[in-house]
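Hi C.,

You asked whether I'd gotten around to modeling the 258-residue construct. I have! Everything is below, sequence then structure, no commentary in between.
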Amino acid sequence: MSLHELFSLKNKTAIVTGGGRGLGARMAMTLAEAGANIVVCSRDLKNCEQFSEKIKEKGVQSLALSCDVTNQQDIERVIAETLSKFGTIDILVNNSGTSWTAPVLELPADKWDKVMNVNVRGLFLFSQAAAKVMTKQGSGKIINIASVTGMGGTHPELLDTIAYSTSKGAVLTFTKDLAVKLARYNIQVNAIAPGFFPTKMSRSVLEKENAMILKGVPARRFGQEQDLDGAILFLSGKASDYVIGHVLVVDGGITTLV
């Protein structure tokens, strides 16, 4: 197999949840540049439609769909419309996520539930629906977007997002267990755990605690969009066919510190 074939996604179909903006959009565009047809879905249909048109400029097909990942009917509709248009679902990138900042003793229960519903329930429901298709195909890639915050605690002065961190810890365990369950069907389930990347959800925190956060990053900089290109391409293509339940950390060295 040639080097090109290891990373080519020509004639593949990828669904990227929360793919209309931010890191999700960047990953969707990377997959498109590798030849994949792209389905972008989120609650913001207009944003997805605008981004979908940009994807088509790469010479691939794209579909924009509205979807609330906590709604099983929405997910089933996305799966059905993807199959109707493209015939297969080869790659699922579970990127949709949310957070809530509050001191642990003041975090409202409904906000905890909101974070868990999007970050854990939504990821489970979408993975389950896509896996039903992939098992029939005899192949597939599921890539969950986790976070280094799911690997341990953080000082409250730095991040007061216990619901988010807990949910991402769940994503890590879910990834490993689902990987074992689906490996026999030639479906590879893996995760990417980014460090600190400025996004709409994190930018205000990173700007406020800039100096403190950077002290803990050996690379001495925040992540940039292109820093995830190699990770998402590797886990989506044939190059990772024997990679099962792996968490690929992209954090500038944060988790290497003792």
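If it helps when you're writing up: The beta strands are 13-17, 37-42, 62-66, 91-94, 140-145, 187-194, 247-250.

Thanks,
B.
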